[in-house]
Design brief:
Order of helices and strands: HEEH
Helix content: 40-55%
Radius of gyration: 16 Å
Number of strands: 2
Structural class: alpha+beta
Oligomer: single chain
Strand order of the largest sheet: 1-2
């Protein structure tokens, strides 16, 4: 199965939902803190979406990949 066809992880879905909620609240004129609702500050000037709080892969797998690549 190609990666683009995989469903989002639970963490990715959580942050997407937070960003949607943040955007709707802004449209409604309600004050919100984007940094608490799925956004992060990039280079101290631009908001960027926070996509997950999970590592890309389990640490054991990353160690194997690192060892094989050398």
């Amino acid at each position: 199965m190609p990666p683009q066809e995989l469903p989002p992880t639970q963490a990715a879905a959580k942050y997407h939902s937070l960003r949607v909620y943040c955007q709707v609240q802004i449209w409604l004129g309600n004050p919100v803190d984007p940094l608490r609702l799925g956004w992060k500050l990039q280079d101290n000037e631009v908001f960027a979406p926070k996509k997950t709080d999970l590592p890309a892969a389990p640490s054991q797998l990353l160690k194997i990949i690192m060892l094989v690549s050398y």
